[in-house]
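Contributing new records

If you add data, match the layout below exactly. Sequence lines come first and carry their own label; structure lines follow with theirs. Keep one chain per record. Anything else will be rejected by the validation script.
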Amino acid sequence: MTLDKPKAWTKAATDPKFVELFALDGESLARPPRGVEPNHPAIADLKRKDHIAVANLSVRDISSRNLVELLYERFSRTKPYFWFLCEALKLPF
């Protein structure tokens, strides 16, 4: 789906609320996957072996009485990103 809908993927992966707190991480292939043009608009993400979204938490955050609310707020920002991944893999969201 990323292959067929690069604009929709870019919109999900660069959503301002998401990228404000999250960064994508994980290993990537050295070359494009078989059948994917090296100049595809989403080539960097199509080469990913993993889709890991990382948001740092401080010791203060983790030990806060508001940790559950903080995590809820942060995870709610991932909705467009994970919705797109679930749709691409034909998984329920």
